[in-house]
Amino acid sequence: MLEVRELDAFYGDSHILLGAQISVKAGQRVALLGRNGAGKSTLLKSVMNAGPRVRGILRFDGKDLHGVPTHQRTRMGLSLVPEDRRIFTHLTVAENIAMARYGASPTRPAVPVADIIARFPMLAPLQQRYGGQLSGGQQQLLAVARAMAANPSLLLLDEPTEGLAPIIVEEMARDVVRTCTEGNVALLLCEQNIWFARRCTQYVYVIDTGRVVFEGDWEHFDRNPQVQQRYLAL
Ligand SMILES: Nc1ncnc2c1ncn2[C@@H]1O[C@H](COP(=O)(O)OP(=O)(O)OP(=O)(O)O)[C@@H](O)[C@H]1O
C-alpha cells in the first residue's frame, strides 16, 4: 500500500532524510521509532506533501505520489494527525469531526459523526464542548477521531501520546487498535512511547539521522537490545 524507497527529504538546504526505506501493507500497523530530530515527522510530512521537498520513490496503492497535492492524497485514503493536532478551538467536538467531510470524495465518503463518537467513547459526553475547552489528551483523541472520520485506508499518527496522562494513553491505544482493526485501516505511527507503540503496532522501523537502521517485528526488536541502546537510549 505505502512504498517509500530511497527517499531524500530537504528543508531548504538541510538534507534530513537520506535514502529512507519503509513499507506498510494494507491493514498493517507499523511503528516508526527514533530519537528527537531523527526524521520521523519529516517522513510523515513527506508522505503527505506537507512541508519538505522530496526525491525518491513514494507510492501509495501503486500510484506515484510525486506532484499529487495534499488534499488529493487525503482523498486517496491518507490521513495525517500532526504533532500539533490542529483542532479548531472555536468549533465543538462534533463540528470538528464533521470537518472531515471536506477531505471526502465520492469513492471515499466521510464517516458519520455518530459512528465516530461510538468508536471513541471518551468523546461522547464532550460532543457539544468547544475544542478550546478540552484537555490536551481530549484534544489528541479528537484529532485522531477526526482523522478516522475521513475514512482513511492509512492513518499517519505523529507522536499522539506526547505529554498525555497514562490513563488517556491507554484509552487511546485501545481506541486506535479497535478502529484500525474494525475498518482494516493501516497505521504508520511515530512514537517515543515504546509501550504505546508496542500496544498499537505489529512491525517496527527505527530511524536515525534520516536513515532506517532497524526493521522487524517486536520479537526481533526485543532480541536486539543494542539497537535499543544505541538509537533509542532505552
Ligand atoms: N521546517 C523545518 N525547517 C528546517 N529544518 C527542520 C524543519 N522541521 C524539522 N527540521 C529539522 O529536521 C530534522 C528532523 O526533524 P523531525 O521533526 O523530522 O524529527 P523527529 O524525529 O520527528 O523528532 P521529534 O521526535 O523531536 O519530533 C531536525 O534536525 C529538525 O531540526
Describe this structure as you would to a colleague.
The chain is α/β, with parallel strands linked by helices. The protein is built from nine helices and ten strands. It has helices at 40-48, 70-76, 93-98, 113-119, 136-149, 166-183, 194-200, 218-222, 225-232, and strands at residues 2-11, 14-24, 29-33, 53-60, 63-64, 78-81, 154-158, 186-191, 203-208, 211-217. The longest helix has 18 residues, at 166-183. The relative contact order is 0.19. The structure holds adenosine-5'-triphosphate. Residues 11, 14, 16, 34, 36-42, 51 line the site of adenosine-5'-triphosphate. Adenosine-5'-triphosphate (ATP) binds next to β2 and α1.
By CATH, the topology is Rossmann fold
Q: Give the total of domains.
A: 1
Structural class: alpha/beta
**Major β-sheet, in short?**
6 strands, mixed
Assigned CATH architecture? 3-Layer(aba) Sandwich
Largest sheet, spatial ordering of strands: 6-7-8-3-9-10
CATH superfamily: P-loop containing nucleotide triphosphate hydrolases
Distance between the termini: 31 Å
What's the count of strands?
Answer: 10
Helical amount among residues, as a percent range?
Answer: 25-40%
Q: Which runs of at least 5 residues are low in confidence (pLDDT < 50)?
A: none
Indicate the proportion of strand residues: 25-35%
Radius of gyration: 17 Å
Quickly count the helices. 9
Please write the CATH class name.
Alpha Beta
Query: How much is the average pLDDT?
Result: 93
Estimate the global geometry from the Cα principal axes. Answer: globular
